[in-house]
Sequence to fold (412 residues):
Amino acid sequence: MANRSGQVYGLTILCPIIENDRLDICHSMELRWYLGHLPRDHKSPFARISSTYLARLVVMDDVVYVGAPACEEHLKSRYLVFETNFDGDLDEYLTRMARETPEFVDAVWKHCVGYPGISDTAAFVAYMKKCQVPTTFFFADVNNRTVERTLKAFQTQSALAHFIEKHQGKPPAEMQREFGALLLSMTHAPLPLPGGDESDRMPQENRPQEKSPA
Amino acid sequence: MTNINGKAYALNAITPMKPWKTPILKLFFFLLGAIKPLQNDLKNLSFIHFARWVVVGRNQFPRLSGKQPQEQLRYDYLLFFSNFNGTWNQYIDAFSAVLSQGLDLVWRWSEKYPGSRPVTGFKRYISLVQFDTDYYYNVYPRAATNDVKAALRVQDALDHFASASQSLSPADFEKAWLEFLVRVQSDLGSTGMAPVGT
Fold:
């Protein structure tokens, strides 16, 4: 199935956005306003749905007219495009969205036609699947690991690099002992924050100095 | 609008296709999926985390209520979503330089596609059919695709080495440690903040 590459699932959803000419602020504008203020770092709702690699939400206003001799045509509805890449099972992912980020799901999908709310998780999952469009071709560069394993790998890489730098030239017995202690400390260390923090996205001049792990 | 999060750029594009061409494109994608060596160029570029093409038929836009107006389209649409590292210009340049034939096989079925070479016309076309991202989440904003692969190689090597390392004599540990260092040394670069770019 093209929605999946190895362990990674590529979900694409198109949800029609409610059109109501009588509102001062249309649903699509309100939705854009909300998305524009949503945290993108470890406070993001997707950081809570911990199997998410990369995800995006896009308000698609219309199709594109590429010029004559093509025909010009337009959509009758705007669509919310939800594109996400995660490890694991689709039903479980959608269920986690409803259960672990209910305020986010509600704030976004309340602007969409046919949204059943989140009080009935099964109804929400069924709704999202009704809006799913199958992926025709999906490419995942790394498709045989989980998000957790990848975050763990970054932690290991950083800790090991600093260990090597600090312990170069030490006697083998001491090195072996210290290496054992490193392995033990890494077992208990919390994973890096999914989504990072806001300093990862600051302009160069405002960024804090890079810190070495203790 | 927020197409960038850390080191990743979210590209969205939509192009119209005459419906009779859709099965040909689907066949091409089927072959691309089934014959893995055909993906080698895409893989070797090594700056795309995830990418997908989605064909939406002119009657396949979801309609969830009788009150929602029925779409009346003459074209099928090809949607493209990519999560890549680097700038927009670097991405399109690399696509044009390395994947020219593959790209042409994908987009030649879309209306007014000019071909991926020369790159100036290709860039103009992508600019025309691209639409911006409203919200973009990236689990590891400090990492490019190559960083992910390097970190995973270090983790795998460490898992292999760690289990045996503590039962060795100090002399054997020293030898094994050096072999381990040689194996991982080129993958120990740290991740970091992305340069500011567009």
Summary: The radius of gyration of chain A is 22 Å. Residues 94 and 161 of chain A are 38 Å apart (CA to CA). Strands of chain A lie at 4-5, 8-16, 52-60, 79-87, 137-140.
